[in-house]
DNA sequence: GGATTTGTTAATGTATTCATTAACTGATCA
DNA sequence: TGATCAGTTAATGAATACATTAACAAATCC
């Protein structure tokens, strides 16, 4: 909490607006396929239209919303096809990161955060705490990509992830507990440590493929056309 | 020309500024690793700071520049490591698109633009017109990605491409004429038409790998640390 | 002479004002 | 009755005004 406030200290209102609007979208306070006027958002965030507008333009560039003149900004929803497209990209980029990480001759100490995340998932599974599991899972994937050592992949993955955040949150409680997935994580961890690049790549590809197929079938079964 | 002017008719100044600043960067009128004040850019573009600022924030999100308070916007240069990172991503995404295109059961008519580009490259090679070749090559790659049918890949590739545009332009006249590369293009064309997804993927991977290795060695030989 | 501090400058970041224009309402006409 | 057109409204998009603050310079103190 304090860290967050501190972090925002030297940020411009535009960047604060960007983060806050993102949060409002993720939390569902701003609904997908709905429009919100700039004035409305400015009031809500307690600032003038100027930084809010800057934020919306940045978020439009990221694909989270569309600025529709005289109608307000429209929060983009995600179709099943979108989900498939996004997961395809996500898979490709993460697998690339996994391969790179395995080639980077990393030591156990380098992989500490990755292992921490794996353990956190195990704990969360034991106590059936889905929220905690989701957080640890995200930490795992973030750290994996970071270990890949390609900054651009990091930011691209982060951007794309933002676009499916709502869908993931939506299905979190519909999913069976992913008891099996931690086996994949451990296998990947070992491959990276051993420097087995292709194994890391392939393991992760299967993992991601399973996860995305599950997610998409859950959405379909729930009759969800858009999220 | 007229099309461009027309295109800009209904665009906001912010979007015009974004395009124009990009052009200024690509053409080298704005130098990498140099700073330009917002006022300066606004004067140059004949508009007020407001839309210019919006443009710079969008371009910062895209990674082309950095907004440095009180120092002006700094045009980002690209290191060899950056080039490697970028080409790695580009390769992965384009190969994905190639695979998808091959799976999409496309007919000859669908592949017309791709073939046009191949022919244009051949013509350009015959007359040793590097500029024309580069344009056709870009058209080929753009169309390939479009045929992949994943909009997000299109925009990501386009963004990433923008980041290496200067480097490519720089080496264009240093390169030997890429007489061999059109064989790769034709092979890819055939693979897509025949629906041979893995061949399309692998052909393009090799093609991209060669191209990036060549580009990077050219930059290294030229003693270029940053572009 | 060097370091520190205060004052000034200038560029950013935000708010506000203004102009433009799409959307809506109602009225007129066929 | 329905359609078209004028007038009004309201939201955007841009310019300008204003506040803030980092950077630089000058002056003072040790």
Describe the protein.
Two copies of one chain form a homodimer. Chain A has 227 residues and is mostly helical. Chain A has two domains: 2-75, Orthogonal Bundle (Arc Repressor Mutant, subunit A); 80-221, Up-down Bundle (Four Helix Bundle (Hemerythrin (Met), subunit A)), CATH 1.20.120. In chain A, 71% of the residues lie in helices and 4% in strands. Chain A has a three-stranded antiparallel β-sheet with strand order 1-3-2. Chains A and B meet through helix 4, helix 5 and helix 8 of A and helix 4, helix 5 and helix 8 of B. The structure holds a DNA duplex (30 and 30 nucleotides).
Throw out a few tags for this protein.
homodimer; 227 residues; Arc Repressor Mutant, subunit A; Four Helix Bundle (Hemerythrin (Met), subunit A); 3-stranded antiparallel sheet; disordered N terminus; DNA-binding
């Amino acid at each position: 909490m304090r860290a967050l406030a501190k972090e925002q200290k030297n940020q411009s209102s535009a960047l604060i607006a960007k983060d806050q609007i993102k949060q409002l979208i993720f939390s569902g306070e701003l609904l997908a396929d709905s429009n919100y006027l700039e004035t409305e958002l400015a009031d809500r965030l307690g600032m003038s239209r100027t930084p809010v507008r800057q934020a919306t333009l940045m978020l439009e560039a990221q694909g989270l919303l569309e600025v529709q003149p005289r109608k307000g900004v429209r929060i983009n929803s995600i179709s099943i096809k979108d989900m498939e497209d996004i997961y395809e990209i996500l898979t490709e980029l993460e697998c690339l990161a996994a391969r790179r990480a395995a080639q980077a001759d990393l030591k156990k100490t380098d992989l500490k955060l990755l292992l921490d995340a794996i353990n956190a998932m195990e704990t969360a599974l034991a106590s059936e705490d889905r929220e905690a599991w989701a957080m640890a899972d995200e930490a795992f994937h973030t750290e994996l990509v970071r270990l890949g050592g390609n900054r651009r992949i990091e930011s691209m993955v982060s951007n794309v992830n933002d676009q499916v955040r709502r869908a993931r949150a939506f299905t979190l409680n519909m999913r069976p507990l992913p008891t099996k997935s931690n086996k994949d994580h451990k296998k990947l961890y070992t491959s990276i440590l051993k420097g087995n690049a292709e194994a890391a790549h392939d393991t992760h590809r299967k993992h991601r493929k399973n996860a995305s197929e599950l997610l998409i079938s859950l959405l379909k079964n729930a009759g969800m056309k858009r999220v």
